[in-house]
Design goal:
binds magnesium ion, alpha/beta, 9-stranded mixed beta sheet, binds adenosine-5'-diphosphate, 25 strands, globular
């Protein structure tokens, strides 16, 4: 076998570095006997923002905890951990030596936005205003709160904030601290694309990265690309070991990451390339085809909250993915409920809908599953999910790592694990229509692509239809044939536009967000332009907000 993938296995055949010794010399931490091992660390540098990308369970959060001084690195010696002098000596001659010297002497004042934000809800008692005033050490809280669009929530209790609001509050609370090392562990979960850009801009503007260390872990590649100057890739075997790569410039680093090959270490990190569909193809629906889904102009209102949704007419065909784009709180989930006949419109109607609809709900909770264990839920969705010779096992169950947690009970799963199970169950069910409400939340890039590929395959090969609500624009670009853009005043009113071509829909959304996106000359992947850059101004002048030719 390849052990920890260091011998010449087919997977790593390309590696010519004599990895065993090289790698062992960089062992930074091991949680315990037969437990996860972390090799190397991201080396934060002042003057730039360092992005971190990589698989779930590969040691990104562990790296942050070590750099922030929350976890002392044991260099693999978990039974008698070394002292700081030994640690500093270990990193002699590397960029990390200076960092650890400072860390050991208490000169690093680290502030961390943790990956999991739910714990903060239980601990933080008070209103947004009270807690911001208490956290503020830089006299910046009003400005930061304003730019994150949190000002209308000042009197709201923090434990009553929605996921997205809590995320932004925590980002603000970190930035107003007087630190010299800021760490953001997945700051975009729960946020829509507008808020992701807002968070990226605020981190850039207020972290003072010219003087401070700033590190951001993120799975939304377009946002990570926009936010960071350099990146490191964390690769390895999730849950077993993780290796932090050398730093790369963000553009080339992400391209290498997608290709699956890191030239500076001569390392193949994956069997195949992660390919995003880069053409904005105009797929044609066969003329004369009969839609599987068709709705009138509709009006809907929730009596209790008064939220009002207006919907333009539309349809969807066999073999098609309709992407749903738009900010939080403007009725995307409500629209799926109308199509699913869980909600009744005041005006208009759903004219045609399928009998069998499989839904992946947005809300992740053990309660959405009918069976007790992962295996029982997969089996009840489709026995093929447990058959290692089936494509769905190969493409979905194995790629998402569900095969390693078959015996687990759903009430013991983490958010990310619940998401994987929910997506697999929804896609494995036999149906004519698939509704996937935010399927990529918590998933890493590889998992997002596996899910996206599976959706395309079901739609193309089995002739099904899918509607997918998704904030990750790269994923949305990959899966959708046409898109519906939702706009409006969050929580008050929403308007759903008719389905249009990918380019037209992205253009509409991006114009609304005042963001332009160009094509990377090398990989063809979409990249967000820096506001005010030449490309940004030119594209705006031409009204081409998304991927001009
Ligand atoms: P990532 O942030 O890249 O998803 P983490 O750094 O959170 O990964 O975790 C890497 C691995 O280390 C995981 O397999 C996780 O189960 C394991 N791990 C994390 N924390 C601990 C701990 N306190 N004790 C033992 N194992 C841990
Ligand atoms: P999105 O999916 O675009 O984030 P939703 O369709 O979930 O938006 O919700 C739109 C708005 O409708 C929310 O801001 C919320 O205020 C309101 N809303 C959602 N569900 C209910 C409900 N069951 N009762 C009353 N109001 C609701
Ligand atoms: Mg993590
Ligand atoms: Mg929703």
């Amino acid at each position: 076998g390849c052990g920890i993938c260091v011998k010449k296995c087919p997977f790593h055949a390309i590696s010519i570095v004599n990895l065993p010794d090289e790698l062992e010399k960089t062992l930074v931490h091991r949680y315990g006997e037969n437990m996860f091992k972390l090799y190397n660390l991201p080396a934060p540098r002042t003057g730039s923002i360092l992005g971190v990308v990589g698989r779930n369970g590969a040691g990104k959060s562990t790296s942050i905890k070590i750099l922030a001084g929350q976890l002392k690195p044991n260099l693999g010696n978990y039974s008698s951990p070394p002292d700081w002098d030994t640690v500093i000596k270990y990193f002699r001659g590397t960029e990390l030596q200076a960092y650890f010297t400072k860390l050991a002497s208490g000169e690093v004042k680290a502030v961390v936005k943790p990956q999991y934000i739910e714990a903060a809800r239980r601990i933080l008692k008070g209103t947004v205003r009270e807690l911001m005033v208490r956290a503020d050490e830089r006299g910046l809280w009003r400005e930061v709160v304003d730019e994150l669009n949190l000002s209308h929530l000042l009197e709201r209790r923090v434990d009553e904030l929605s996921g997205g609001e809590l995320q932004k509050f925590l980002v603000a609370a970190v930035l107003v601290k007087n630190g010299n090392a800021y760490f953001f562990d997945e700051p975009c979960s729960y946020l829509d694309i507008r808020e992701r850009i807002r968070v990226a801009n605020v981190i850039r503007e207020f972290s003072d990265y010219a003087r401070n260390y700033v590190v951001v872990v993120e799975h939304d590649l377009m946002v990570l690309d926009y936010m960071s100057d350099n990146i490191v890739v964390v690769y390895g075997e999730p849950g077993v070991y993780g290796v932090v790569s050398k730093p790369y410039g963000t553009r080339t680093g992400i391209n290498h990451y997608l290709k699956g090959y890191l030239p500076a270490e001569n390392m193949r990190i994956r069997e195949d390339e992660l390919r995003f569909r880069i053409q904005v193809q105009e797929r044609k629906t066969e003329t004369g085809a009969y839609p599987v889904l068709k709705w009138d102009a509709m009006v809907f209102q929730y009596e209790s909250s008064g939220f009002r949704l207006t919907v333009e007419p539309g349809d969807a065909y066999t073999g098609e993915v309709l992407g749903i784009l738009g900010p939080n709180g403007v009725g995307k989930t409500t629209f799926l409920k109308l199509l699913n006949r869980e909600a009744e419109p005041l005006e208009g109607a759903v004219l045609i809908s399928a009998e069998k609809i499989s839904v992946k709900p947005q809300e992740l909770s053990p309660r959405v599953f009918s069976e007790e264990t992962v295996m029982a839920n997969l089996k009840s969705a489709s026995p093929a999910t447990l058959d290692p010779s089936s494509w769905i096992y190969h493409e979905l169950v194995r790629k998402l790592g569900l095969n390693r947690m078959l015996e687990r009970r759903v009430d013991e799963l983490s958010g990310g694990e619940l998401q994987k199970l929910a997506v697999a169950v929804a896609l494995a069910r036999d149906a004519d229509l698939y509704f996937l409400d935010e399927p990529s939340a918590y998933l890493d890039v590889e998992e997002r692509i596996s899910v996206a590929k599976t959706i395309r395959r079901i739609v193309e090969e089995k002739g099904k239809t899918a509607l997918v609500v998704e904030h990750d624009l790269l994923v949305q670009n990959y899966i959708s044939d046409r898109v519906m853009v939702f706009l409006g005043k969050p929580g008050v009113e929403g308007h759903a536009h008719s389905p249009v071509s990918l380019r037209e829909g992205f253009n509409r959304l991006l114009r609304e967000l005042d963001i332009t996106v160009r094509r990377d000359s090398e990989s063809g992947r979409p990249r967000i332009n820096k506001p005010g850059s030449v490309m940004d101004r030119e594209q705006k002048a031409r009204g081409e907000y998304y991927l001009p030719d």
